[in-house]
2-C-methyl-D-erythritol 4-phosphate cytidylyltransferase
Amino acid sequence: MPKLHVLIPCAGTGSRMGLNQPKQFESLAGQPMALHAINTFLSMPEIASVWVGVSEENKELPQELPKASWPKDSRFNLSTTGGATRADTVVNTLKAMAKSGIDQDAWVLVHDAARPGLTVEAARRLIQAVTEHVYVSGGILAMPMADTLKLISPQNPECIGKTLPRDGLWLAQTPQMFRLMALTEALEAAINNKFEVTDEASAMERAGCEPLLVPGEWRNIKVTYPQDWALMDQILTHHSQKKENQ
């Protein structure tokens, strides 16, 4: 098994949640949301390091929250590499990882702090799929689209314009797993050419790669809106109670 590293961009503002602070630092199921995914990766012995890119002003977790301290695990690295966009934060953190001595061909799993429902099983499924395919550039967790897809009307944005075919469409999740230098170069090229990058795979696709699609899990949703928060709080609370009772 090759050495694996994790990068979690954690510098976003979470403005769509309507909170007073970035959502990744808000308490979810008893601890700041970002810690759920961080602790999942740190529970995996195959992970050599976990890097969290934060902005300078958000490097401290809210002291008033329970369990609000960064992990003491020696593999954990808090890096003030937050940028203006997600892509900037990822690039800055990748460069910090390379500067620390991590090999340019090392595999890096980039994961959203706002996806606290990630399981070890899903992360390992991605790792196994990517590392078993010798010639692939990397891969992502994703879910095949099950819902009917509607496009709004250009004349009336509150109405349906038409229904789109969903065949072959997948909903991208994270982690997204690529080699350190290849991902750095792909993201930098996208940024320099002002290409909108909403995930790492889109930058790699633009560079000519075809990442693997690896089945994810429905609980690995991105917490974006208040209703997502309530649902994920229930899922994580139930999971925590189940573990305590075992």
About this structure: The chain is about 30% helix and 20% strand.
